[in-house]
Amino acid sequence: MDKRLIVALDYDKLDDVERLVELLGDAVGYYKVGMQLFYNVGTAAVDYLRRQGKDVFLDLKLHDIPNTVAQSAAALTGLGVSMFNVHAVGGLSMMQAAAKAVSETAAQLNVTRPKLIAVTVLTSISGAEWAALGYQRSIRDQVIHLAQLARQAGLDGVVASPQEAEQIRKVCGKEFIIVTPGVRPQGAALNDQSRVATPAAALAAGAHYLVVGRPITAADDPRTAAMAILQEMGAK
Ligand SMILES: O=c1ccn([C@@H]2O[C@H](COP(=O)(O)O)[C@@H](O)[C@H]2O)c(=O)[nH]1
């Protein structure tokens, strides 16, 4: 089972999740539970996926003061997910507090420590939107800066666009996890994504994990769509 493909379960209902996971079967071993699903069904989706033997990336993008994020990260560590995230713009102290909370809680509970990664710059942000936000650095330089900060804080990796993966890999090394949403097969609708690449290009740039949602979930035949992506990834 190839675990480099993470399918984003952006649904309101657990029924929809169960239908897709059943349809994709053994072809997909890693799923992403984001805000939409978590706020609708709570931990039920995580529990269901764990019972099915799937890995879970809990994409809640924690962003608050260090104490609040650390306490929240401790709570998420007990859920049995493989990976979850914070926003890097929460700052170095926030990321350090989260990393400490995850390690300490995993040790206390005697569970495997989930990977903790940081969102850099959302893949939906275009050059024009970036300019309107008023940052001095380019998107790329900001992503690299935040990736280095996340690494300094002891995090395991980052979420970034495939367009920045190669540079992150160079600067942060090959062990540092790079998770890339913004993945679109050739000719697929971009939806609200801006900084995109194909599955093959994302992997060639050095991404460890590709997050794909609507190109699969909104396809007429989600299984065929997922299999085509896996084939492009060279999945065995
Ligand atoms: O920068 C980011 C961070 C997270 N995401 C999430 O990934 C998926 C992408 O779904 P698609 O349907 O393939 O666009 C979605 O759940 C986002 O919340 C992201 O796109 N960009």
3D structure, described in words:
The protein has one domain (5-233): TIM Barrel. Helix content is 46%, strand content 16%. The protein contains 11 helices and 8 strands. The protein has an 8-stranded parallel beta barrel with strand order 1-2-3-4-5-6-7-8, surrounded by 6 helices. Bound molecules: the ligand O=c1ccn([C@@H]2O[C@H](COP(=O)(O)O)[C@@H](O)[C@H]2O)c(=O)[nH]1. Ligand LLZGTKA7 is lined by residues 8, 10, 34, 59, 119, 122-123, 159, 181-182, 191, 193, 211-215. GO terms for molecular function: orotidine-5'-phosphate decarboxylase activity. One of its GO terms (cellular component) is cytosol. Keywords: Decarboxylase, Lyase, Pyrimidine biosynthesis. Substrate binds at residues 10, 32, 59-68, 123, 184, 193, 213-214.
Q: How many individual helices? A: 11
Largest sheet data: 8 strands, parallel, barrel
Structural class: alpha/beta
Q: Can you tell me the CATH superfamily?
A: Aldolase class I
CATH topology (fold) name = TIM Barrel
Radius of gyration: 17 Å
| Order of H and E elements | EHEHHEHEHEHHEHEHEHH
Report the strand count: 8
Strand order of the largest sheet: 1-2-3-4-5-6-7-8
Based on the structure given, which CATH architecture is correct? Answer: Alpha-Beta Barrel
Arithmetic mean pLDDT:
98
Shape: globular
Helical amount among residues, as a percent range? 40-55%
Molecules bound to protein: ligand LLZGTKA7
Distance between the termini: 8 Å
Number of domains: 1
Uncertain runs: none
- Reading off the top of the CATH hierarchy, the class is best stated as Alpha Beta
Subunit structure: Homodimer.
Pathway: Pyrimidine metabolism; UMP biosynthesis via de novo pathway; UMP from orotate: step 2/2
Catalytic activity: orotidine 5'-phosphate + H(+) = UMP + CO2
Protein name: Orotidine 5'-phosphate decarboxylase
